[in-house]
Design brief:
This protein is mainly alpha-helical and 196 residues long. It has six helices and no strands.
């Protein structure tokens, strides 16, 4: 009688696994039929396949709704960099022209105010160029981090595996975006053009 009880318990567990397999996508009747007699062997693989990932790993990847605002911030920062580049291409923002102007003002014996104004303009342009370089470097690095995140997401989608460091990657992207926000805020601050 003990063998009959074990057989009933074995079939009951198999039926339970079959019902569970049918409740999770992708649903396959063949999988449900096979899992009844082979549930100790086939069941775990069926459930890993049905989740499409290792347990707990899917939560590490941000969804599209979380990545979209980050991408928009990156795009806005790239537009800001393009604006700064356009400004620095203007003749009035050319450092060589400003330096030539300083030499000509000094040689002509111009007033201290005129020379101080030209010096102040040169310093403002130099600071803007430094901020531009810092922003460009950050954006380049951030672009690479986004590519790495996209790669991790695709690897997860195809292979069902993701490196646990992806949560650090997302945190790094967010931190760098905050750093870019600070650089942009500094760039928007008025640069003093008064006497130095």
């Amino acid at each position: 009688m003990a063998l009959a009880s074990v057989a009933v318990l074995y079939v009951a567990c198999g039926l339970g696994c079959a019902i569970a397999s049918m409740s999770r996508p992708p649903r396959s009747f063949l999988d449900a039929v096979i899992v009844v007699p082979l549930w100790p062997l086939f069941g775990p693989f069926l459930f890993i396949r049905s989740t499409g990932s290792e347990p707990g790993m899917a939560g590490l990847l941000p969804g599209p709704e979380a990545v979209a605002p980050l991408r928009e911030r990156l795009s806005a920062s790239k537009r800001r960099l393009a604006d700064i580049d356009a400004l620095l291409r203007k003749p009035s923002f050319d450092l060589d022209s400003v330096n030539r102007r300083l030499v000509s003002l000094s040689a002509a014996g111009a007033s201290k105010l005129a020379v101080a104004s030209a010096l102040s303009r040169r310093k403002a342009i130099e600071r803007l160029a430094v901020r531009r370089k810092t922003l460009a470097t950050e954006l380049e690095e951030l672009g690479e981090l986004f590519l790495q995140l996209e790669t991790q997401t695709e690897v997860f989608r195809v292979a069902g595996h993701v490196d646990e460091s992806v949560s650090d990657l997302v945190a790094d992207i967010q931190a760098r975006l905050e750093g870019i926000d600070e650089i942009e805020a500094e760039t928007r601050e008025p640069i003093s053009l008064g006497q130095t």
